Amino acid sequence: MSFQQQLIKWYDIHKRDLPWRSTQDPYRIWLSEVILQQTRVNQGLPYYNRFVETYPTVRDLAAAPQEDVLKLWQGLGYYSRARNLHAAAQQVVEMGGIFPDSYKDLLKLKGVGDYTAAAIASFAFHEAVPVVDGNVYRVLSRIYGISTAINVTAGVKEFKNLAIRLMDHNQPHVYNQAIMEFGAMQCVPRNPDCTVCPFKDDCMAYKDQRIEELPVKIKKTKAKNLHHHYIVLQTPQDKTLLQERPQSGIWAGLFEFPFIESDGALLSVEFRDKLQEQEWWSGFRFRESVYNQDPIIHKLSHRKIHAYFWIVEIDQEIEEGITIQQAFQKPLHILMHRFMSSFWNSYL
Ligand code: SF4
């Protein structure tokens, strides 16, 4: 039996029943693929269902305000995915509302890279293009014993060429689903149960006991430490203040408390001095107390945020103040949402 046949046989027995597998609608397939990038299926599934329910067609998504789309995305992280999703939906509508039906044309959509274009083209239109995601890298590197790093150009090329060679041209959609599912369910990153694997007799990594070593990934530079002191403003009428982040960079367009940066933890008196350096604070009398002495650590791909929340009570109302309920309606980044949910849990 060929590699492809063995793989598809395994898939027929073990595949999970997931809603995006029973549709050929490119819009829904695209939604699922974008949601599942850097997200586990269990976490992504409720988001997929909510998106499909709220925006059943690409036209519905395109017509929605960006703030609503970001709000629905809240908690998934990597918000550029949501912004690109929204922008690409508008592109599709501008093209007459018909989804591009080839790998080449799908690549023209905002945020759609090689992987997503291949997934939509093969799952929705049965085009014979290979998908190469983290699962596929792992399966191929182990079975073929390839030590080239998967995050360098040479590795990307080598794995892509191998994936093209292995492609099942008669049923590319099933083959692609099968190899991804095999990586997700059988050839898992840690301690796969090789004794039940259909490839155990041919798998190089199993033969040479190199399973934990493969695939090889070159370590990236160390994350930069940032210390953010968030100002949780409270007015006499229980209002607070949020600001929108710039439209580029991390958490672009999302809302958070204003903050000041420092090189580390601050004493109350140092925090107060830093606030008073800012002109905005000159007219206010305020009382501050730190909510968490130890920082809440939030890791991003290249940064590590050490977050301190300072409760700052002022003695007058401010024009820009919003109620706590209104604050919860804003698209918040995950760090903000977590803090606000525990601090103001009675308002949820
Ligand atoms: S034998 Fe083990 S390492 Fe090799 S493909 Fe199967 S599960 Fe993966």
TrEMBL record:
It comes from the Bacteria. The keyword Iron applies. It holds the Pfam family HhH-GPD. Its cofactor is [4Fe-4S] cluster. It catalyses: Hydrolyzes free adenine bases from 7,8-dihydro-8-oxoguanine:adenine mismatched double-stranded DNA, leaving an apurinic site. Keywords: 4Fe-4S, DNA damage, DNA repair, Glycosidase, Hydrolase, Iron, Iron-sulfur, Metal-binding. InterPro entries: A/G_AdeGlyc_MutY, DNA_glycosylase, Endonuclease3_FeS-loop_motif, HhH-GPD_domain, HhH_base_excis_C, HhH_motif, MIG/MutY, MutY_C. GO terms for biological process: base-excision repair; mismatch repair. Its EC number is 3.2.2.31. Binds 1 [4Fe-4S] cluster. The keyword Cell inner membrane does not apply. Residues 35-185 form the HhH-GPD domain. GO terms for molecular function: 4 iron, 4 sulfur cluster binding; 8-oxo-7,8-dihydroguanine DNA N-glycosylase activity; adenine/guanine mispair binding; metal ion binding; oxidized purine DNA binding; purine-specific mismatch base pair DNA N-glycosylase activity. SUPFAM superfamilies: DNA-glycosylase (SSF48150), Nudix (SSF55811). PANTHER family: ADENINE DNA GLYCOSYLASE (PTHR42944:SF1). Adenine glycosylase active on G-A mispairs. MutY also corrects error-prone DNA synthesis past GO lesions which are due to the oxidatively damaged form of guanine: 7,8-dihydro-8-oxoguanine (8-oxo-dGTP). Belongs to the Nth/MutY family. This is Adenine DNA glycosylase. It comes from Nonlabens arenilitoris.
